[in-house]
Amino acid sequence: MALVVQKYGGSSVADAERIKAVAQRIVANKKAGHDVVVVVSAMGDTTDDLIDKAEQVSPLPPARELDMLLTAGERISMALLAMAIANLGHEARSFTGSQAGVITDGAHGKAKIIDVTPGRIRTALDEGSICIVAGFQGVSQGTKDITTLGRGGSDTTAVALAAALDADVCEIYTDVDGVFTADPRIVPAARRIPLISYEEMLEMAASGAKILHLRCVEYARRYNIPIHVRSSFSQKEGTWVVDSSDIEARKDGDMEQAIISGVAHDRSEAKITVVGVPDKVGEAASIFTVLSEAEINIDMIVQNVSAASTGRTDISFTLPASDGQRALTALNKVKDRVGFESLRYDDRIGKVSLIGAGMRSHPGVTATFFSAIADAGVNIEMISTSEIRISVVVAQDDIDTAVAAAHHAFDLDSEQVEAVVYGGTGR
Fold first, then answer.
1. Residue 327 burial (CB < 10 Å; 0-12/13-18/19+)?
2. How large is the greatest C-alpha to C-alpha distance in the chain, in angstroms?
3. How far is the first Cα of the chain from the last one, in angstroms, to the nearest whole number?
4. What is the spatial distance between Cα 190 and Cα 265, in angstroms, rounded to a whole number?
5. Does position 90 have pLDDT exceeding 70, yes or no?
């Protein structure tokens, strides 16, 4: 008997038939003797529809009221799922994020979980009920207002509940059969990864892989919660995300650890170049302090060698494209104080990343990666590395070509098509 936390994404509960199918899967776990806690997202595109409605009413809706509106989507799906389970003869109780004890800070739209106090969930489990929790939401510790957790919030809710309940596993159900070596829409021959470490999954999530959100994986690693990524549309095994020390114990005897886990890409970034920065101590610090105060996350940074004749240099960095205009505004306000000449902005870029713990001990990975991209006729604009990742910035039109070339160069292609996107979104 185990305590299992399951999370179902929007495509998994998109309509009444899908909700009934999910209910049957949940009841099967209950019949097997397990305690089950389920976290649900809003049905299909409900959240996007609610945002559209809000913008029709107000061009700039108050953040508090927008959170109140958006949390309605998960409340609908949790109640409908509880009804479907009851129809199968089992008791299910639905809980909002605040009722489940998900306590957050007060940042509307992007709140962070501070604590989880799942007293009501524990009581319901002890009484034999299946618990259904609304994902993506919590309650502010300070104001007691309803908050939302931002993109990937339901995944984070599930892992946080799993940690608070000391669950045996957190199952993330989506509309693909696990984590793949690349996006199947770009590389149809992408291969399913049976086992992947938290470390590698964090790099893939940070590099644009949409299957799991970064915060969710960070939480799982911190509390050592195994994540099992599976499809709600099939019975296939999926992917286990575990601590690297557990991978050897879980591997089949004939399964070798791959040098490269996968190729991820991100189309959501933009590049800003600060032109003509005086090459003096503290100037770079001034630029990035301004961006930090504007709460803008920076990804890759490149500083050119200072021109001897002018004593000036250029600093380029990437950031989320959604923060681009805010960053330009913040930098223009300090142009005279910092003394740079101009700003250049480019949102027609993308990031392609090669991820694998095996590259630590295998020389030649970098050369193979760059050669594959060059042979495909793709120009590299920026480079960034970590111990288990190499990322490059390329023109947006070249992303698909670069991903496919890198995937093929490291023999990641499967001989038969393994990847199926059942629900159409890949989440």
1. buried
2. 81
3. 29
4. 14
5. yes
| Closest C-alpha to 419, from 255, 258, 259, 233 | 233
Predicted local confidence at residue 425, as pLDDT? 46
* Residue at 32: amino acid letter: A
More confident residue, 419 or 204: 204
270 pLDDT above the threshold of 80: yes
Rounded CA gap, 26 and 21, in Å?
9
Selected residue with higher pLDDT from 290 and 362: 290
387: tokens are 């111990």
**Does the pLDDT of residue 376 top 50, yes or no?**
yes
What is the identity of the amino acid at 109?
Answer: G
CB 180 within 8 Å of CB 16: no
pLDDT for the residue numbered 80: 98
Q: What is the DSSP string of 225-240?
A: --EEEEETT-----EE
* DSSP 8-class letter at 140: E
Ramachandran area for residue 360 (φ above 0: left; ψ -120 to 50: alpha; else beta): alpha
Reduced to 3 states (helix: H, G, I; strand: E, B; else coil), residue 215 is helix
Q: Specify the length of the chain in residues.
A: 427
CA distance to 238, 265, 352, 372, per residue, from 379 (Å)? 35, 16, 12, 11
Helix ranges restricted to H, 151-282: 153-164, 198-206, 214-223, 244-250
Element of type H or E holding 416: none
User: Can you tell me which residue has the tokens 């960070």?
Assistant: 218
pLDDT of residue 239 exceeding 50, the answer is: yes
Residue pair 134/75 in contact (Cβ under 8 Å)? The answer is yes
Position 66 scores a pLDDT of 96
pTM for the structure as a whole: 0.88
Helices (H) and strands (E) in the chain, counts: 13, 20
Name the pLDDT band for 427 (thresholds 50, 70, 90). very low
